[in-house]
Amino acid sequence: MGPLPEVILSSPYRRAVQTAKLFKGEGGAAMEEPVCIDERLREKEFGILDGLTTGGVAKLEPQQAAFRQTLGKFYHRPPGGESWCDVIFRLRALMDTVSLHYSGQRVIIFAHQVVVLCLRYIIENMDEAQILDIDQKADVANCSVTEYRFDPQAGRRGNLVLQRYNVVAPQELEALPVTDAPDLPAVAQG
Questions:
Q1: Count of structural domains within the chain
Q2: What are phi and psi of 50, to 5 degrees?
Q3: Is the pTM of this model over 0.90?
Q4: Are 134 and 168 members of one domain?
């Protein structure tokens, strides 16, 4: 195992904060500072589509289903919600903050599925098709690990390089269940 993180950043959502505090409390970080809550790490806001499956959106919000079909998952912004591009915009600001305030330090981030994918998009300089292909292949597992390491030989001035993605081995080693519950039905059959 490599050096411990020196900075812990977390989404403000309860489960992410609880996981970050548990990680720190079990000796997972080399720091005394509290977990830093950053609202830019919250999950994508789904607005009026919150809690609906694709089938539920089609049945209850057909106009939004049509907009999403036309615009695509990456650009569609439901009323009261965000597009993936909106999430990427706030994460670019977060990455600027990390570069400015935590340069040279090991940072661990506790976040959510779309945030993890959008961070990959930014860090790995992907295009829309590449990240949507990764998203289509599998969900980001709860408590999974995605790790980057700085490689001074990558790029002109060094760069972060993906070491592992969506790995749940720490939970499996401890014989902890990896949760993978199916979505609830969008509407009751009746």
A1: 2
A2: -55, 130
A3: no
A4: yes
